[in-house]
Amino acid sequence: MKGYISSIESFSALDGPGIRSVVFLQGCPLRCFYCHNPETWKTNDGMHLESSEVINRVNRNLKFIQKRGGVTISGGEPTMQIDFLSELLEGFKSSGLHTAVDTSGYVSIEDAEKIVEFTDLFIVDIKHMDNHICQQVTGKSNENMIALLKYLEDKQKKVWLRSVLLPGLTDSEEYISRISSYVRSLSNVERLELLPCHDLAANKYRQMGLNNRFSAYANYDIKTLQKIKTRYIELLGEKVVI
Ligand code: SF4
């Protein structure tokens, strides 16, 4: 079947183990105020490609990525095109590739069931542990994300979590303790990646005529980041990556 693709990146060292191809799908129901990829929000936009064409393009990189890498499907929110996503993942698994799905967690269990078999690793963004704040930050509740993580633990699927560091929202001692307890409670979480916020998408927002709510937030200085990292390492040890 055909799906909408924002872009295909050939070499990424950041989106799963090893060197990876990353396929960015169109469509996202969230509106995170720090989003760097607002061009992926619309579902019916970008390149309209057959799954076989996408799989062929990625497979052309096979000889470079097959040793210790694979393919990651990101977005947007890739589960917005769940049947297309499922077809891609099944095709990549048939090619012998390690597969990862990078998701906001805003996905129903019914949809997760369609892809779990073909996905080796789920990379899940914890937008915010507090449901009320999560809705302010993203426009959506965190209940799906919590339910998805419970489901993935029941399935014993490997998970990497991501948390964006936002001044005053996700970097307080109280929040760090809360999220660390949650991470420790999940037996299948291999790492927690901390992503310091930055305003690098400001130009995109200007060009697209969008209101950049992020601009009110300051970028982190090295000393503050080091302090946050040290605290996380005290609580979670080697699981923490920044
Ligand atoms: S979930 Fe990702 S793509 Fe969607 S708005 Fe948030 S940061 Fe942007």
Question: What tags apply to this protein structure?
Answer:
globular, 36% helix, 242 residues, alpha/beta, TIM Barrel, 9-stranded mixed sheet, 9 helices, single chain, binds iron/sulfur cluster
Short note summarizing the structure:
With 242 residues, the protein is of the alpha/beta class. It is 36% helix and 23% strand.
Verbal overview:
The chain has helices at residues 51-59, 62-65, 82-94, 109-115, 131-138, 143-154, 173-185, 202-207, 222-236; strands at 2-12, 20-25, 47-50, 70-74, 98-103, 121-125, 158-165, 189-196, 240-241. The protein is of the alpha/beta class. The chain has a single domain (2-241), classed as Aldolase class I (TIM Barrel). The mean pLDDT is 93. Bound molecules: iron/sulfur cluster. Iron/sulfur cluster binds next to loops.
Structure classification: alpha/beta
Q: In angstroms, what separates the terminal alpha carbons?
A: 38 Å
Question: What general form does the structure show?
Answer: globular
Biggest β-sheet description: 9 strands, mixed
Provide mean pLDDT, rounded: 93
- The helical percent reads 25-40%
What is the element layout, followed by pairings?
Layout: E1 2-12, E2 20-25, E3 47-50, H1 51-59, H2 62-65, E4 70-74, H3 82-94, E5 98-103, H4 109-115, E6 121-125, H5 131-138, H6 143-154, E7 158-165, H7 173-185, E8 189-196, H8 202-207, H9 222-236, E9 240-241
Parallel strand pairs: 2-4, 4-5, 5-6, 6-7, 7-8, 8-9
Antiparallel strand pairs: 1-2, 1-3
Helix pairs in contact: 1-3, 7-9
Iron/sulfur cluster binds at residues 28, 30-32, 35, 37, 40, 75-77, 104, 138.
